[in-house]
Fold these 3 entries.
Entry 1:
Amino acid sequence: MSVYRVIDVIGTSASSWEAAAAEAISTAGGSLHDLRVAEVTKQDVVVGETGELLYRTRIQLSFKYKPE
């Protein structure tokens, strides 16, 4: 039997929501092990002062829980 933990992470990208999600998963994967499922829960765009766009993707990321 396995137990999984779910956390929210937000990735950002200047190119797309998909790239923002990939960045969030990649960065979280550096410190979390046994990643299982990532579910997109929200997407938005921040418009900078000069009109540049920053795509943000919030995901719920699950990973296998290992008690200490």
Entry 2:
Amino acid sequence: MDDRLPELGDLEREVMQLVWADGPVTAEIVRERLSRRLKESTVRTVLRRLEEKGYVNHTVDGRTYVYHAAEPRARVAAKAVQRIVDWFCNGSIEEVLVGMVDNKMLDQQQLRSLADQVAKAKKARGVKKE
């Protein structure tokens, strides 16, 4: 999957949420679970476009296409956040996090959890404490 994934429309995002939550899925399963009623051919078109954009892959079971996410939701979300960081903060994730703290988007418990996760990641990578 490309690091620079194309943006998604509302329907594509809704379909991706279903793929991540319920995957692997068929066009029929997606059609049944969507909040709006669409023809199966429309759902197949959306899934094909998601595949062209690099969000899903498919396998074939008999004559049925079975779709699954090309990457986990968290990795795709991280790439989207990286794009925002690059656009608005010149690549500084620290600036984004400070902004989130300043705007009370993260509470003390979330900050501690984030710090713990950073420490674990550093340890796993063999990075020394500063």
Entry 3:
Amino acid sequence: MSTTAPVVPDSSPIVLEKAEIRSWKAPIAFGVFVLISIILFFGFARHGESTFRLSEKSDAIALPTVTVDSFVTTAIVTILLIALTAWSAYLSYRARRTPLWVVIVFSLLFMFAFLTWADSGSPYPVPVTGLLLGTISLAVPLVFGALGGVVSERGGVVNVAIEGQLLAGAFVSAMTASLTGSWVVGLIAAMVAGVLVSFLLGAFGIKYLVDQVIVGVVLNVLVIGLTSFLYSKLLAGNPQLLNHPPRLPSWPIPVLSDIPIIGKVLFDQSIIEYLMYLAVFLVWFGLFKTRWGLRLRSVGEHPEAADTVGINVNSTRFWNVALAGAIAGLGGAYYTLGSVGAFSKEMTAGQGFIALAAVIFGRWDPIRATLAALLFGFATNLQNVLSTIGSPVPSEFMLMLPYVVTILAVAGLVGLSRAPAADGKPYIKS
């Protein structure tokens, strides 16, 4: 009698091959700027010297003015840009993402070469400190608006009403600060105004299930019309009483404000800039390191799963939309208390939509959205600097730059921009 040995099944683990996803968007974008560099710096080469002024007369520590050869500098930078583009293409071929720091270095090198080319032969040096100061000033409301957009959309509510929140904050802060003589009251009132606009967004978009994009657009039109009407009827008739708010005082931080270049840019500012630094950190830390952030992201990604573990989805969304409005409203106060010093009709001039583009450009991440807002502020301020140094580039082209970058961001040409899965989708409890 013969016996056969039992067949022992193979117990070795099954290894699944990981699918390789190659994204060529970063190297393609780099390649476009390399092509622009070659055309600009070689096809329209400028031979001469470019000067960069690193210090102002009021700086505690004076740095020497830097002078470089325009053509040699732009040629060397172009070679470095080509090398970074090649490396990005290699990473994409290996199915790896291009690191964020590479994008930042590439951008800084390109802008340095562009400024060198633009200032070639000009008797006026490039004011580096002034360029950075203007960037921060123009980016403050964009950063607050973008942070409000990140908080709202991470919770699943599309916040097209950032423009209205900024404008409402600007109007209410101007009037309340003028009446009370206190910029502190103005800042608090601006946050309240942003919350009120958000309450309407939450009520119609979350409770009554109205399309959130439509609600946001309607709220923007409503706030523009309401503030314009009140400005004409109230503020314009008595500007000394109702539209003359106290300006935010400058609070230089000892020692840090004396650091060359970055000292005045980062540490010799008003309280609202310092609140901006704090807000960026708190939103980032809250979203990714706390229970609140986990709950917020869960209702924005998978509300059904969040509901099954006891999270009230619509309540979480509503109150976080209100928080987003408070953040954006604080940004609106910067127009009247920190920048302009008085309210005027439609003074936000579409900056809320630029902030929304920064949210998309930053991939719904507070740090990336802040960097995108700084980029838009830099592009806006650059046209002022170019006109000062007598650049051959028409200022109208530089004014177009933030909107061109916005189109590229929305089109997804700057990388994969995936919104939270439930963003804009109302949740109906089954």
